[in-house]
Amino acid sequence: MTNSAGTRSTRRAAIYCRISQDRGGAGLGVARQEADCRALCARVGWDVVAVYLDNDVSAYSGAPRPKWQELLTDIRRGEIDAIAVWHVDRLTRSPRELEDVIDLADRQGIELATVSGEIDLATPTGRMVARMLGAAARHEAEHKAERQTRQRRQAAEAGRIAGGGKRPFGYEDDRLTIRESEAEVIREGVRRVLANESLASISRDWHTRGIVSPAGKPWKAHGLRRLLASARISGRREHTPSDSWEGTRPLLGEIVADAVWPAIVSHEDSDRVRRILADPTRRERVEGTTRRSYLLSGVLRCGKPREDGKTCGWRMNGRPRSGVPRYVCPNTPGTDACAGTATNAERTDGHVRDMVLAALESPAFVERLRSQDNGGRELYDEIRTDEEELEELARDIGERRISRKEWMIARQPIEERLERNRGKLAKVSRVAVLLGFVGTFEDMQARWKRMNISQRRAIITACVRSIEVRPANPRKRWDPDRFVFDWVA
Known about the structure:
Blueprint: E1 12-19, H1 28-44, E2 47-55, H2 66-76, E3 82-85, H3 88-91, H4 95-108, E4 111-114, H5 124-157, H6 180-194, H7 199-208, H8 221-229, E5 236-239, E6 254-258, H9 267-278, E7 300-302, E8 317-318, E9 326-328, E10 342-344, H10 345-360, H11 363-371, H12 374-398, H13 404-427, H14 441-450, H15 453-463, E11 464-469, E12 483-487
Parallel strand pairs: 1-2, 1-3, 3-4, 7-11
Antiparallel strand pairs: 5-6, 8-9, 9-10, 11-12
Helix pairs in contact: 4-5, 6-9, 7-8, 9-13, 12-13
């Protein structure tokens, strides 16, 4: 670069520093890089005009590097003439990104200097050296990632504690000792999910009671979902390889071993909750969205006859008319809903409540409900047996008693059986919601008044699969005979 007098001007240099892991959070790694790069610029006579620091950001992982992108933008604007880095691998460990840097050097006349050695991107030899160093750095990063993946897998299979981060809710700072006050809250949350209460309802209740996360923040539905779906609370270690997903980390990992810390809830309850919360058909209402205002939306089914002799069967939704809440078969274009049935919401809610409470007042009905849960223990025993077989298979391949092909052949039917049984286990009776609720009709009425809509809905769905609403009798203002209950027991 020359000035108006035709003499060589000082290069406007940018220092770029990056470190992948800053465990202490002090930024000492990038500070040392910056000091060395400033000394380098002084030796070559460059004027440092900007410093770009990406602390605790990996170039190999592909994570966003905001300061790197800012540097590239400033180069394109003509504000930077040279880059000083500690080593080529601080710029990038991706050959593709390195080629972008070389292209910039060609177009913009950018010079590059490294503390670890001289590289001239203006010459073929310099570019070759940069590419060789970049390829070597990529090779090293891939091997490091492979070793770390294997180490994490081994730690998980051994049930050891995963390092880093804040203490897990329910445990002390040593991650081993149960903090009983929080553990009881977790057990309560598990019971309420098994009772079909929404996470939004639970998190609102916890917020009212002042229950906060280890970070001191109120619980929200998405955080509560991860807490209760974690195998950790059942004293088990789960593992999710980072190369098995992109974007948002999946809710459930693979349970690979019993952990070294004690369980807060049983394996059985944990498996049920995990299956419920992972169900893609479950639609949670997170904090900040509209709360459910109609008790029986989706429980009521339209019973208007069709021409083929069958009933409409469409789920009825809450929808007011002239300010009066009603349940209606929706008029939704592109669906088979007939839009021909409606019922007053307040009177329907009261009728369904009284029918459910009357049923629960019957010892015979409650006993039939409880009998629905008998298969749960058998299913759980089958699941535990299959999980132990998978663990044994993993040990066999690890100790080379079987080949990988044999392991894959043996593993497939076990995993398929596990998938089926876990699905059945999640659908086993939700009798837990009725514990502490069943009593005299008057007692249950009093408890009902103290419940929110989500809790009331949980009671209803523990007893009723669906309720068919038949067309209204024009001669009757209110006809309870319109409602046909499909009882669980």
